[in-house]
Amino acid sequence: MYRRPYLQIPGPANIPEPILNALNRSAINHRGAEFAALLESNVAGLKEVFQTTNDILIFPASGSGGLEAAITNLLSPGDRVIAVNMGVFSSRFATIAKNFRANVTVLDVDWGAAITADMLRNTLQNDNNHEYKAILITHNETATGVTADIAAIRQVLDEFNHPALLLVDAVSSLAITDLPTDELKIDVVVSASQKGLMLPGGLAIISISEKAWVAQKQASMPKWYWDFAAMKQKNQIGQMPYTPAINLFYGLQAALNMLKEEGLPNVFRRHQRNADAIRAGIEALGLEFLVGEPALRSNAVTAVLMPDGIAYKDLGREMSKLGVVIGGGLQKLEGKIFRVGHLGMLHEMEVVAILGALEMALTRLGYPVKLGTATAVAMAYYLSKEVIERACP
User: Fold this and answer.
1) Does the pTM of the predicted model rise above 0.90?
2) For the CA atoms of 337, 5, 347, 16, what is the dihedral angle to 10 degrees?
């Protein structure tokens, strides 16, 4: 019997039916007027989601491709940059820069924590000649479930009147956690289609400031596929330098319509509420989180320490039997945590179902659970105080 899949990993996210329907379209001429109109509409909608008036470029790629595009278009070999390592995916930004021969200073943060303003301040305070050309930072690290404070990073740059470019990986935070690009003067924001935008993977989406365009003209790293200037030139006539993922553009239009209808502040609020409800339920089961500081916990994914005596492979198997797919720990966290994604298409009763599956899976594995504990806490969280008092006097 068919049942709705619960793909509760940190991405790809579940794809809503309106987006699935939009993807089911015949191909069109990617050099014709129909695609040009579709591209223009999508770029306009993306500017609202990115909260920017900057240029938006869309590449047929994963988010990692977008990170490489940012590095190769804005830097030259030997340029000094600061990269923040908070986990698997933030370290990737640094690795790409190193592979293209940038001179990378890595700020290592304990996995489960986030960079602080003081860490950056201590690094920049002796950079009187402004040798650092860019700051590379991941807004939301899905390997650990941590969200960095980008506003604090911007504040430090402003304190020093430092001209370094601010490059932000928002692959797992766009349309999930508020990131006002223009307000924070972020020069490049890189995101992708398969998380907050609720599409299949395949689109890397990048916003580029005027300051970044100046740097792009001076950068000398090799590139062809990732060339910002070539992409912008073709976009101006409604085309791309090569064949685009046409059907994903139809899906993107549907996703942007859904986000606009809900309203961006409501999208952020829903993600926060779902994250809080899931964590309240998990905590009620006596489980502990990798991220100790509540303010740093991600609205996209929660990392939970494995309970003693239970292996992740067994928990993942039992959850899968119940129709819920969760993620495990990566690299040095392998076997030590499990991760529950709560990004994209997710609503209150689905949160209750996910927690119910977790209770059942843990019970089957011998973990002491009073069935209904996590689900009751989540339901109480969603109900107003007045309703709770009336139902449970």
Assistant:
1) yes
2) 120
